[in-house]
Design a protein that fits this description.
Layout lengths: L6 H12 L4 E2 L5 E7 L4 E9 L4 E7 L9 H12 L6 E4 L6 E8 L7 H27 L5 H5 L15
Antiparallel strand pairs: 1-2, 2-3, 3-4, 4-6, 5-6
Length: about 160
């Protein structure tokens, strides 16, 4: 008789196979970790929803958006969301926290390590990519958003991703 693995244990196995360090959240199907990316350290929260056979990965911006910059930042995030094929940026309008969330629904019992690591890498890359743009809007909230989002000098170099 084989014992069915839980979704969170399969996610932990994917992290172990990738050599990534993480912390289990007590009494929750959640792991947390940080990754050093090109622009910032990216905090990550990954939750398993066993009954839905769904994994949700959420990356958090390394700083909060102050009230004076929130409207232009929210505008920039929504414009950015329009260009994304997977995942989306979210914001807590009360605290100024910014998140990138990506999820996947797995066929019952069919969790693929590559899908888990791809979700995590996507969240890291997207949060790292947006970080300097949001920092610029914090510094100068009145600047034209279209011009800012067109700046290629703020993008990390291709191939510089780190997942340590």
């Amino acid at each position: 008789m084989t014992v069915k693995q839980t979704l969170i244990s399969q996610i932990e196995a994917a992290f172990d196979a990738a050599g990534w360090q993480y912390r289990k959240v007590e009494q929750q199907p959640v792991i947390e970790c940080e990754f050093e990316a090109y622009n910032a350290k990216v905090a990550m929260h990954l939750q398993a929803f066993e009954e839905l056979s769904t994994a949700s990965v959420m990356a958090q911006l390394s700083f909060r958006i102050p009230p004076a910059s929130r409207l232009p930042v929210w505008d920039a995030l929504m414009r950015t969301n329009l260009t994304l094929n997977v995942g989306n940026f979210e914001a807590n309008i009360e605290t100024g926290e910014v998140f990138f969330r990506i999820s996947n629904v797995f066929a019952k019992g069919l969790v693929d390590d590559e899908i888990i690591t791809s979700l995590v890498r996507t969240a890291i890359v997207e949060m790292d990519r947006i970080t300097p743009f949001l920092a610029e809007l914090n510094r100068q909230p009145q600047q034209p958003i279209d011009a800012l989002l067109a700046r290629e000098d703020l993008l990390p170099p291709i191939g510089e991703e780190s997942t340590t």
